[in-house]
Amino acid sequence: MDRPLRKNGLALVALFLRFQWRAYWRGLSRGGKLTVGNQGLSLIIVGIVGFKYVQSLRLAAIDLTGGKTTLLESLLAGIWVAWTITTNSSREQRSVAARAWLHLPLSQTKLFTVRILSLLITPSAWLVLAGSLGIGYPLAHSPHPLAGILAALLFVIMTAFVGLTFAHLLSIPVWRRVLVACALVLLAGAVVYLVNYKPHDGLGPGTLFPLTPMALVANAALGKQARLGIPLVASLTFLSGVTAIWSFRAGLAGAAPRSSARNRRPARLRLPGQLGGLVAKDLRYFWRLLDTYLGLLAAAAGCFYLVTAEFPTLDIFLILLTLVFIPIAPLAFNSFGLDSPPGLDRYAIWPISGRAIMLSKNLAFLCVVGLQTCALILLACARVGTPAGVIGLVAFTSLAAAALAWGNWMSLSQPKKMLFFHFSSSSSSIFDTMAGVAFLSLPGVLIIYLVHSRYYSALNLLLVMIFFGATYLFSLAVFGPRFDQKRERIARVLS
Amino acid sequence: MFEIETQNLTKSFGPLVAVRNLNLQIPAGAIFGFLGPNGSGKSTTVKLLTGLLRPTTGDAFISGDSILSSPLVVKQRIGVLPEDLALFDSLTIWEHLLMTGPVYGLSTKETKQRGEQLLKYLDLWPGRNTYVDEASTGMRKKCGLALALLHNPRVLFLDEPFEGIDPVASRNIKDLLLELATRSVTVFLTSHILEVVERLVDSFAIIVAGDVVCRQTMQETLAAGETLEELFFKHVNRASSEDLEWIGH
Prior knowledge:
The complex is a heterodimer. By secondary structure, chain A is mostly helical. Chain A has 22 helices and no strands. Chain A has helices spanning 9-30, 39-65, 70-88, 90-94, 108-118, 123-134, 136-140, 145-170, 173-196, 205-208, 213-222, 226-253, 276-286, 290-308, 314-325, 329-333, 341-349, 354-383, 386-413, 430-452, 458-479, 482-494. In chain A, helix 2 packs antiparallel against helix 3 (70-88) and helix 18 runs antiparallel to helix 19. The two termini of chain A are 38 Å apart. The relative contact order of chain A is 0.09. The chains are: A mainly alpha, B alpha/beta.
């Protein structure tokens, strides 16, 4: 009865890629975001970053001829970060639906090939790829250009594989826990190292890690450790490729039908009131976004400063407090991004207003950011002084109010789907996000200015807080009711 | 006063008119069946009546209150099992109930009591701690039904309540709906399973391409010596079946 498959493997892969490509671009155009959302401005920003990158490439080329590799290694590290973000961002994940194809007669090799090639569907991936290939320019000016370029190519492939491995492992619950445990161990190790670090010992990070992949590429270009460099990079690339394939298979295996009788321990967090359940739900959602952990990392860095600095200052404390808000801004700026269209329907079924729904999202954000910054404020109280703690509280309130005031508008006007256990891309408009980050930082800047000016008084600090508090209340009053009107559009964008 | 009443309810999506000038009057305690082929406008009507969609023109009233001018009052009064079930990812069935109760003004204690009774009745209690995105279609459907009933609504809107449900749960739901009707709860349901509808509803309407083409009581249908299926196919054309010779060879 079955007709043998006529299409060979490559043609099947091409077929799938063609439809992936079509689905990706159609999804973008159906979201209505090709012409709106300040795409032009985003392009200008990308252009500026690109220009700076090209300048850095030229400087790296000059450095390399002089035997200096610091800038080259930094650029390579940047490429690694870019590939990690590209492979782990929500948008890239959406274009890959390997799990949905498991019922088709496709081998895992073909599925993996589609997975790899699908990475190159999005324009952001093209830019990262172009940037990665651009690293060939300084290497071409090195004493050993061929060895350097070969090592760099292997390095780029390795970074993509490592990013993919992370993306795959993050989709498996057990591995997520393992990765978090590893991150905590690494963090603890770094803290212990930094606490005991004495500049005069000469045991800097560079001496501890002389064989980073970036250093290996640089050494290959300079002809140092030539026998060791390229084989080591090749081995790392091979190893990362193997782990990428293994993690991909593990991810697919995790998609097998799970027992519906599998019981979960119910969440212990219970919040009172009509909106308590909604706040608890959003809290749980927010903790499943990687951005939240970036915020936690920023808060941990701030705490580390306050604990270890000989004379911690109020200014740096306030800057650190402001910095904690920036990585988690997407939680406020795209507060419906983690909801599914059926979830949005549930909001419409319930007898609660759009304002109440928005308030529940705002409260969840406040809980997350409050948990992240409370240690920072308490430490400021202990190390800088009680007034610093009080100023910190004023700054926290103002920063949160500013973030939410901007976020309530953006959540309705620029919604975008976010995926659990990935970095969010806060909204479809880079300009609005950047403007939002500037706005949310404003209270921090204002308070630092006030503290150093002749206008410094408790009343003025209070006025700042009242102003941003009022801005927030205004945004809740105006944009809350609009949720009811915008719900269908948001659902369309998130679907 | 009718429990559910619509006045020239119309919904258009661009040039497509999904529901056209719908006028319904359903008394309290009635079980009303809303039938039609796929894409005929059944689910759109449920969405219009429950505030999930805004009508293009016309209005709908639940116990005399307009869904347009008093949406929160109406929503407090109704229970809904929507087409997409409207469940949240990554929450368990039990968490859905715990979250929904307080939204309708129930205390946590009351929510837990009612939730437990409902889940036991629907044979869902052992699986209450299953994430809805890991649950089977039937479990998800039962969860949606439990959420619709939790606050003891006066009017129940059920979009395909029997789809994907096992026979035991299906029987339980039918018994429950009949019991609810005796307690003056009005039920508005859509279903493709005509045999079930036939045994359950007091009256029904058939909608085809946005227009109601037939509306009568079950008594009238039986008195005419017709089954619901016969009447349905009088109004709904079956597509001519192609000769699919290639299947099975």
